[in-house]
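Quick review question:
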């Protein structure tokens, strides 16, 4: 994960159809800039193993280092897909020991109510610093960097 660049695409699922084989699907997502198609394969990590359906708000992450076909609408291979709530933001980033994102765009303030799990749903008993985290949050402060108390954090081990 350290050598890849995951780009998020946030939007609403408008269609899911069978892919080229029994273990793949095509997902069309309506974003602010138009429709983007994603291939979902057996290797695609769907957070919380949610059944994806039309109308769901999702964040689909693709690896920008992988080749993509030059077609319209764009089509990417989804690496991670997660369902997000209304007015919710999501960020996948490396957070340092002070829980500041590697690009300085967000600082995390944990609370007792923050749900913290590993990708496979296990409890987390270690320090979250210096790790890749998928963070779900709603509001941030106007400070630099912006700060938030996340609703949920998924730890990538």
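Suggested answer, residue by residue:
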């Amino acid at each position: 994960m350290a050598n890849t660049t995951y780009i998020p695409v946030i939007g609403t699922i408008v269609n899911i159809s069978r892919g080229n084989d029994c273990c793949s699907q095509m997902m069309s997502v309506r974003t602010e800039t138009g429709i983007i198609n994603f291939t979902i394969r057996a290797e695609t990590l769907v957070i919380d193993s949610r059944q994806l359906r039309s109308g769901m708000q999702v964040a689909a992450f693709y690896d920008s280092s992988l080749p993509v076909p030059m077609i319209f609408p764009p089509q990417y291979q989804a690496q991670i897909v997660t369902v997000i709530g209304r007015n919710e933001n999501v960020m996948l980033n490396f957070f340092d020991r002070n829980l500041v994102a590697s690009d300085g765009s967000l600082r995390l303030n944990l609370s007792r109510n923050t749900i913290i799990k590993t990708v496979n749903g296990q409890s987390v008993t270690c320090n979250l610093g210096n790790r890749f985290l998928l963070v779900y949050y709603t509001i941030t402060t106007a400070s630099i960097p912006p700060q938030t108390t996340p609703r949920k954090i998924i730890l990538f081990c």
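Why it works: The longest strand covers residues 6-18. The mean pLDDT is 94.
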